[in-house]
Design a protein that fits this description.
Blueprint lengths: L3 H24 L4 H17 L5 E8 L9 E6 L7 E2 L4 E5 L3 E11 L1 H14 L24 E9 L6 H6 L13 E4 L3 E6 L4 E5 L6 H21 L5 H4 L15
Length: 254
């Protein structure tokens, strides 16, 4: 059985977030996108993410100068590699230090879904430098989970079909290697892809938004698991060019 104290704490956070979204939709429509991002960041993710994870917004980059699209919420850890921050949250984040790229929508539409899929496609172009090295500092091959693209929305305009059916129509590889690995729409359900089973796991919506609690719990689990795989990548890959250098061998003084 789960711990009721933990469950109640997170359920309260979910309900507070839903109320805050409703208020924002009524009172601050023009700035709703930014407000919704703040609600998800402050009210939900901070509750479930342990140290050393932080939350940012901006672009994810790799050591070869490839950039992602602008990303609403990035879960990262500067314990792996440091970001370049232009404020307390906005910045540029090295791919090896990032774990979740979350697009946040107020009301999910076909256009908004296409936008999230295109951003996930761009994220796939990033490369990851090795985080495991031999005694002579040579990189060793190892498996790691790339940054996972996810989607969260407070409501949807969809009628007549399921959210997973609409997604399947837009991602031709949705049953083998989907671009978006997890998405949660309040009141519609939580959907995530299992690479091991090659199947989508569907968590139905409930009146008390149990689907959001499950989305948050598994997001936290995934980030912790991914962090264990990253090892210690080297910042030098981001800074040093392949320019010529000299090697001077020394001899002992007699």
């Amino acid at each position: 059985m789960p711990n009721e104290i933990f469950r109640r704490r997170l359920q309260a956070a979910v309900q507070n977030a839903r109320r805050a979204y409703t208020d924002a939709a009524l009172l601050d429509h023009m700035g709703l996108r930014g407000r919704v991002r703040e609600i998800v960041t402050e009210g939900l993710l901070k509750v479930v993410l342990p140290e050393p994870f932080q939350l940012g917004t901006g672009k994810i980059v790799d050591a070869y100068d490839v950039q992602s699209s602008e990303t609403d919420i990035i879960v990262y850890s500067k314990s792996v590699l440091p970001p370049i921050l232009y404020s307390s949250r906005d910045g540029i984040f090295p791919a090896e230090a990032c774990f979740l790229a979350l697009e946040v929508k107020s009301r999910l539409t076909a256009t908004e879904l296409d936008d999230a899929i295109n951003k996930a496609k761009r994220l796939r172009e990033l490369s990851y430098t090795p985080g495991i090295h031999s005694l002579v500092h040579q990189p060793l091959a190892h498996n790691l989970t790339p940054v996972i693209s996810a989607l969260f929305a407070f409501e949807s305009d969809l009628t007549g079909k399921s959210e997973l059916e609409r997604y399947a129509e837009r991602d031709q590889d949705w049953m083998q290697n989907p671009l978006i690995r997890a998405f949660c729409i309040v009141g519609r359900g939580y959907f995530w892809f299992s690479p091991e089973q090659k199947a989508w796991i569907v968590h139905p919506a409930t009146d008390d938004a149990e689907e959001v609690l499950e989305f948050l719990a598994l997001a936290s689990n995934t980030c912790v698991y991914s962090l264990e795989q990253r090892g210690r990548p080297r910042l030098g890959k981001y800074l040093m060019t392949n320019r010529h250098y000299d090697i001077v061998q020394t001899r002992p003084i007699r």
